[in-house]
Specification:
mainly alpha, elongated
């Protein structure tokens, strides 16, 4: 049973890494954001291959069935990625607001300059 789970998790990790690589190649994902996804795939791959480490972690967490730790790892990686992108989106939203305000001020200044007699 564990071998089947191990094979599925290895295949899933490789599919994720391949998919991320393809998104980068097609310029649909920037390299700096792909690092989070590659990191998650590598962590999953390491725990998929290294059975002893997975079992030790399961023992430390008090989990009877070691492959269920893989699910916890996947959820944690998804949470970390979501949190990172939330921070990035928040920063971009603030920058967008500031940029819109600056454009409005420049338009107002241009309009004022055009309406004044030379």
């Amino acid at each position: 049973m564990y071998l089947r789970t191990q094979i599925i998790s290895v295949i899933a990790s490789l599919i994720i890494a391949g998919f991320i690589f393809e998104l980068i190649r097609k310029r649909r994902l920037m390299e700096k954001y792909s690092l989070w996804w590659f990191g998650s795939a590598i962590v999953l791959l390491v725990f998929s291959f290294w059975r002893d480490l997975l079992e030790k972690l399961a023992f430390l967490l008090g989990i009877e069935y070691a492959p269920s730790v893989l699910l916890i790892i996947i959820v944690f990686c998804g949470f970390a990625i979501s949190l990172h992108f939330t921070v990035v989106i928040s920063k971009l939203t603030e920058q967008n607001k500031i940029l819109a305000q600056e454009v409005a001020l420049l338009r107002n200044e241009l309009h004022t300059m055009k309406s004044q007699p030379a």
